[in-house]
Design brief:
Order of helices and strands of chain A: HEHHEEH
Distance between the termini of chain B: 22 Å
Radius of gyration of chain B: 39 Å
Helix content of chain B: 40-55%
Structural class of chain A: alpha+beta
Number of helices of chain A: 4
Number of helices of chain B: 26
Number of strands of chain A: 3
Largest interface: A-B, 24 and 24 residues
Helix content of chain A: 55-70%
Shape of chain B: elongated
Radius of gyration of chain A: 15 Å
Oligomer: heterodimer
Distance between the termini of chain A: 27 Å
Largest sheet of chain A: 3 strands, antiparallel
Chain lengths: 108, 880
Amino acid sequence: MAGSDLFTGTLDLLILKALTWGPSHGYAIGRWIRETTGDVLVVQEGALYPALHRLERKGLLSEEWRESETGRQAKYYSLTPRGRGYLRTERKRWEQFSGAVARALAIA
Amino acid sequence: MKKSFRLTDVVPNARKDVDDELAFHLEMRTKEFMEQGLPADEARQRARESFGDVQRIVGDLRHERAERNSERGRRDWWIGLQSDIRYAFRSLRKNRAFAAAAIATLALGIGANSAIFSIVNNVLLRPLPFPTSERLAVLWGKYPNYGRANLSLPDFRDWRDQARSFEHVAARHSVAFNFTGGEEPVQLRGDRVTANFFAALGVQPMLGRAFRPEEEVGEHLVVILSHGFWQRQFGGDAGIVGSTVPLSGRPYTVVGVMPPHFRFAGDKDVWSPARTDTPTAHRRSEYLDAFGRLKPGVSIEQADTEIATIAQRLSVQYPGTNANFQSEVVSLHEDTVADVRPALLVFTGAVGLVLLIACANVANLLLARAAAREREIAVRSALGASRGRLVRQLLTESVLISVIGGGLGLLLAVWGIGALRSTNTSLLPRIGEVRVDLAVMGFSLLLSLVTGLLFGLAPALRMVSNRLHDSIKEGARGAAGGAVTRFRNSLVLAEVALAVVLLVGAGLLIRSFEKLNRVDPGFDPRGVLTYQAGFPAARYGQTSALPAVYDQLMERTRVIPGVRGVAVSNTLPTLGIGYASFAIENVPFPASDPNTGPIDVQPYTVSPDYFKVMGIRLTQGRGIESRDVDGAGDVAVINTEMVRRFIPAGRNPIGMRVTFGNPADTAGWWTIVGVADVVAQQGLAAKPYAQIYLPIAQAPRRSVYVTVKTDGDPMALVPSVRQALRSVDSEVPLSDVATMTERLSTDIAATRVSVTVLSIFAALAMVLAAIGIYGVLAYAVAQRTREIGIRMALGASAGVVRRLIVRQGMTPAIIGVAVGLAGAFYLTRLMEKLLFGVAPSDPATFAMVAIFLAMVAFLASFVPARRATRVAPTEALRYD
């Protein structure tokens, strides 16, 4: 997994997107990213946690320990209203950005 | 556990948080690989690989988490507080009965404190409403070991002219004017003042000018109006200055109007110049209130010393009049509030005690609740909530209760002050300035916060103490019961002790009040209507014309149906009176005794029926009769106190002659014809004073009091009495109308207010203490239901069980009574000035309070005790 800024921003977006389905713990978020992006984005799973903690610190996520589906305590993350707004604007920016890059590459 | 309860609030442990989170991830991932068919250790290995460098990530995360926790500390504190407050609100809503009881208790406690504080703050602490008022001082005359006296005009002039400490030395005395410029004649409250009166106070008229020095010399018909009178009578006419108003039959020119709220020596309508040039004034004709404005930098003590030197010089210069006349200079503020300070300080102490009792009671309620919350606290504690965090949560609840209570208390205070103001405005100096202001609100808020911490801290600490962890196990009920009960017992003890102090204080005042009420005033106030009438010089000329007017007035009043008698006099008991120096023919004065005060008498001038109308007993000789007119022999009636002090033992006063002023140049002698009982002239609490009665026909005055005796309701006579006065002179107002009973009750009104206020506080204290005892016992009974059931099942009689419970309640109460009596013995000395005829350590009061509180404690214990014995044993055994 690359550590570039480009990638960091992308991972944040994916995490936020994953949580639009509802509160989830880190393992399930990682699994969702793996399954939806297939083999294109092979995430080193450990990288997920610094990202989660960073997003929580910025107030985009909130966290809460609760019982998971297996009966064990797990830390659940959920989108804060700010996180939801951030996802909306960043998604727009990402679409503009990726569209622009795609157009530029097509011209070349 | 509450749904919104967030563990992150209470787990600052960064290491555990990170470890747990990653462990969970690895475990789930391992499980996933195993579901794909891998054996356990291989699955674990694959999970680690796909995770990346576990150690590095764990390190990064832990570091980041720890940093963030300390960064977020402050923000979390506030967020935590908000959630604490929300939680506290929910908790109070769930326990409405508890919340209502605690809030009501505190509202009463804080309300009483706020009300008393607002009075103390405005009356005792705030400066007087004059510019640089700290430089204002009152100049009193003084008789050694007797007390203060007003100044005579010659003494005032000498003090004023010789003193160097003052910018101004001014003086005033009251005067009444008949004002005939309105629809009805009315009597105005006036002051005659020296020209520098307003300058000395530092307040100038808002319209026109102050008086000029030359207006003190000779007679000048000029007047300054009060703002209130100007508004009331002239609708605030801006052109009033320069016009004339009729006062007591003479035209006075208005030269100024004072600003609103200007008030000195009571509410006044008008001010007019005082003459200071009267050459014949006697040095012991004391009628002036003198005060001054100190030069900057001069202290009260320096001024006091200087005036004392001047008074000393005068006593050498005029030994005949000034030998025993000294001086005393006090600050105007001190002079204004000194009389009420003892009462206000006692009230402050009393409300403080009430609040302490309220705190003890609420602490008790909290502890009772603690039993129900033990599990909740234990669970939160087990989940990792730190002890500090839990204490904070519990204290938030306490402070929330006290702040709500304080808010309601403030409303109570506003209401209470309004009630006090409407009862009697003359009882308390500066009562008009009293209001609930920012200072009072701040005080209430501070008091609420302190109160909340005070009653909340001990229960909170106790609730989170270690032993409570046991109670997480169901059935370990009351593991901490012993300690808590001991603590609650000591609260009850404290409450009872405080209540005893308050009850003793109130009891002493009640006994003072009783004694005061039982004092024989020396006259019979029942069925006597009184009013004042003034017959001004402008309409009646020389005073020699007045006896005929009195006779006409009394004749027309006497024929009113229901009137049993009517009299005219210069003053009335309970009102102001002059003091006259005198001499008895051929009787030397007793050696000058500094402890008995001036050798003088309170002089009355009365019409013949005065003794009959007022019900004053004559012990010897005769009273004033209708034959004692001008030109007949001058006669006098003296009182028993004058006989005791000044007539040599064994000699008959009848037939002796007295004179006034200096016997060497006397104008005449009055022959004593009778002796009357002592009349309580200066109030029921005052010592007996020598008194003398002269026929008013031989010494007529322009302003007189008329007394009318009836068998029925005196106030019912007012219309016909007014008609009688009007038929004599339609321009003379009927003023200062009151029954004699009313005048007498005003005299003891201040004591009555003290009694009422302190009794209310004491009753409050007693009820709170009783509730406290009851609460502790009811709780104890509930805790011991099982034990009681077993005892009864084993054959213990109801009586034995009742005794057991009652003893548990009575023990702290009795100790509390003993402690309280000891405390009261020390504290009641502070209220000695408020007492009359009762010693601060009055044994009867102490004994009664002790018995009374013991009875209250017994009742408060007996009710739960009886309930305990009503429990069926089988039910009690099941009770858990």
